[in-house]
Amino acid sequence: MNPLDFLIPAAHAQATGAPAAGGSMMSTLLFPVILIAIMYFLMIRPQMKRQKEHKAMLDKLAKGDEVITSGGIAGTVVGLSESFITVEVASGVQLRVQKGAIASVLPKGTLKSA
């Protein structure tokens, strides 16, 4: 038995000249629609929600915020531009990173306590 037999019904010759039932066409089209809906709600929608939250976080960034980059570098924001952020990682050591590289904003005072 072929493993795809449960997905694709086998074609059988009909003894009578009656046309095929219309319900099989509906079930054939319903299966892909259900799969697309499941993919949307389990994969696409949550990803879009995360992207929207990340963009909102980046829009709220201000000088003095403590951040962690996607590379794991922690520092304090000392400068902002449209696409880059200057992060001070130690006294007198500043790095310019892209805005999208900011992974999260830390609560105030987190870096001093670490």
TrEMBL record:
InterPro entries: Preprotein_translocase_YajC. Keywords: Cell membrane, Membrane, Protein transport, Translocation, Transmembrane, Transmembrane helix, Transport. GO terms for biological process: protein transport. The keyword Zinc does not apply. It is found in: Cell membrane. One of its GO terms (cellular component) is plasma membrane. The chain crosses the membrane at residues 20-42. It is a single-pass membrane protein. Pfam families: YajC. Belongs to the YajC family. This is Sec translocon accessory complex subunit YajC. It comes from Thermomonas brevis. The lineage of its organism: Bacteria, Pseudomonadati, Pseudomonadota, Gammaproteobacteria, Lysobacterales. The gene is yajC.
